[in-house]
Amino acid sequence: MSEGEKKAKRSKKAKTNGTVGLFDPMTLRGMTVRNRIWLPPMDTYSALAQDGLPTPFHYQHYVSRAMGGFGMVIVEATAVTPEGRISPCDLGLWADEQMDAWRWIVADAKAAGATMAVQLNHAGRKASTGCFSIGYEHESVPEEQGGWQTVGQAPTRSGRWTSLANSPLTKSMPSSTSSATPLGVLMISASTRWKFMRPTAICCRNSSIR
User: How are the residues of the chain apportioned to helix, strand and coil, as percentages rounded to the nearest 5?
Assistant: First the structure.
């Protein structure tokens, strides 16, 4: 029995038992992912030029996972504004040149059969922190070393929360979402480090690379 026949047999057996197989395709709002093994977003702190642009490292990191068989590859925390980065070495998607820098990565990952996703992120008052790439781990990065004044929902932790409609995250999200969609990124996961908000998954329509 060939390997393909074995897979078909296992899939048929799982379906007759009322369950699904790990390698069975999954369709969500018209988007079909080839299997149920997804690479979760894990920050690599490797945009070493501190410009939010992906590098050849990111190409190797994500395309190799797509070639390895992941059904969905979810790109690490990608800031919606410069001041929303967790660290100065985070990726970003607030400028056109960042969108263009992702095209070869998205194209080759999709050619390898993976569905691409991105975790949009705003770190709020927990932004501008150090990482292994630049030091200052578990500390705020000084402005003279590439850090910045952070922003949040309120001036202080004990301050009164302002309207979500006026928050930096809410204002920045639409432009970053529209930047991700033309790349062919099919799912966007929105995340924030403001504790009162829960991460939200947003499914986007299929879009070809322009």
Answer: 35, 20, 45
